[in-house]
Structure formats: structure tokens, C-alpha cells
Amino acid sequence: xxxxxxxxYLFDHVEAWKTQPIALVNARLSALGSRDVTFVHRRGHIKGxxxxxxxxxxxxxxxxxxxxxxxxxxxxxxxxxxxxxxxFLLFIKERPDYGLFPLELVxxxx
Length: 110
Hints:
The chain is α+β, with helices and mostly antiparallel strands.
């Protein structure tokens, strides 16, 4: 089983993903099918269909321990990771409750 960063996977399998409409990118990712996904920042993996959300991690917020926190700030506080200022986050189509992840913290296994 080979492994690559999500960013490499996108560049290799979803041509011009940064400039295409998000619905088109997600349709392409759905056509590629379910993948094993692991996380750079913590243990564990999940199998599912990778999808992108057109949302900047600086602007996406959620309630954590009674306070609103951005995805960017959460990953810095919890894992000590500085997140790039991008316009996308990842989620797993079959498990949207699993959360949103910065692209640079995800690896894809073929």
C-alpha cells in the first residue's frame, strides 16, 4: 500500500483542483472512491471518501470546551501545529461528524 500527502494526492489525481468549482472537485474525489486516511498530527485512521470544504481554517469555527475556536487555533493549541492559510478543509463524506482537517495534516493510502 503506497502513501502520499493529501496535497500530493490532489495534484496527482485531481487536475487543477485549486481552480475548479468545489462541487466538481468533490465529484472527482467521489469517483476515485474510498481511501484509507491517516493523520500526521495524531494516531488513527479512517476509511472513506475524501471531500473538500471551501472554507479557510482561519474562519471555520466550532465549540470546543465551551468556547468558540477556529480550526487554525485548535490545531495550534492542541497539537502545536501552525496551519497554512488555505481556502480548503477536508472531511470524510461518510463521517462528516468526524471533523474538519487541514490539508497538510492528512495522508492518503492507495
